[in-house]
Amino acid sequence: MISVCIPTFNGSKYIKQQINSILSQISNDDEIIISDNSSTDDTIDIIKGLNDPRIKIYNFKSESNSKLNNNILGRVSLNVQNALSKSSGDYIFLSDQDDIWLEGRISNTLLHLKSDKPTVVVCNCSVVDENNNVLIESYFSYIKPSQSIIRTIYKSSFHGCCMAFNRSVLKKAFPFPQYAIGHDLWLGMIGAYYGEVFFLQKPLILYRRHSSTVTTTGFASKRSWFDKVKYRFLIIISLFKGILIN
Length: 246
Fold this sequence. Notes:
This protein is an alpha/beta fold. 37% of the residues lie in helices and 22% in strands. It contains 9 helices and 9 strands. It has helices at 15-23, 43-49, 72-86, 105-113, 139-142, 149-154, 167-173, 183-194, 225-245; strands at residues 2-8, 31-36, 55-59, 91-94, 100-101, 119-128, 134-136, 163-166, 196-208. Strands 1, 2, 3, 4, 5, 6, 7, 8 and 9 form a 9-stranded mixed sheet that branches.
C-alpha cells in the first residue's frame, strides 16, 4: 500500500492539479493523506470536491508553545509529521501542494523501495514557474545529489517533494528532533545512516516556484552566517540524539 502525504496551507490555486496528477498513478487501495494547517482559503473545499475515497483529510494546528512553531520551517515540519503519523502505507511519498507529478513518479520509485532495509529514494525534478514554464530542466544540475551525511549537513540534496521511503525509515525517524530542521533532511539522514539512498536522474516532478512558495529549498537563503552555523549545529545534535534513541 502507498501513502502520499501532503501538508497544505492556503493552497487552493494549485492543489486540484497536483492531486489529480497523483490520483492517476495510485491504485484503489492506496491513500492520499492531507494534513491542513488551518487554511483560510477554499483549499479543503476543493479537495473535498474531488470526491475520492482515497483522500483522507486531517486538520492540524501546531501548539503555540511548541519550539518548532517559531518559524516557517518548524511549522511545515510539524504539519508533515502529522501527515506521516496518519499514514498506513508500506511506502510513503512526500508531496507539496503546488507541484505536478509526471508519469512514472511512483512506478520508477517503487523499484527501489521494496527492501527490508530503511530505504530513501529521491527523484530529480524540473523547476517551473506559475505558468509551468521550465526555469531549470534538472534540479540535480543545480544541486548535485549526495547521500554523504557530512555533505548533507553543509548542503542537503534531500528535497522533500521528490522523496519517498519505506516504513522502515519512518520507524527510525520518529520521534523527530525538537529543533526546527527540515523534515526532508532528517528523513534523508536516517536513510543514509541506517540503510540505502537512491537518486533517480530522470525528472519525475514539475517543482513549482511562485510568489506564494513557502520554503526556499535549494535556493538562496536569507539567513545570517550565525543562523546557518547554528542550524548545522542543531542538525549534528539531532543526529546524535536520534542514533542514541534508536
